[in-house]
Amino acid sequence: MTHVYIPPSNFYVHPYLGIAQDTPNFILQESEVDALVEVDLPQFLSDDPLTTRVLTTSYAHQIKVPAFELNGHIVWGATAMVLNEVRELLKQL
Question: If residue 53 lies in a helix (H) or strand (E), which one and from where to where?
Fold first, then answer.
């Protein structure tokens, strides 16, 4: 998958995609993860979760960003970029 540079933190994210037969036992690092959001695949692949939001961040005010609305959570930024790539890869299958 595509590496994503995140300017505010000066980090590169190197996403990986894996397949498991059973649901993994996720252990969240609370300082890094706000929530684990599970979404049904048909919902994720549809256009329904796609949205745009106006946000204020530590580095920009009132910016319009593409996002996903997934089970009541707004996912944007680098996470949304990675999810969009996953979504497009799955649609090609």
Answer: strand 50-55
Handedness of CA 63, 64, 70, 76 (dihedral sign): negative
Q: Which two tokens stand for residue 28?
A: 């969240």
Tokens representing 84 are 């969009």
Q: How many residues does the chain have?
A: 93
Q: How far apart are CA 72 and CA 93, in angstroms?
A: 28
Q: Which has more pLDDT, 83 or 8?
A: 83
| Whole-model pTM over 0.85 | no
In this predicted model, what pLDDT tens digit does every residue of 40-52 receive, in sequence order? Answer: 999 999 999 999 9
Query: Which residue shows structure tokens 């005010």?
Result: 61
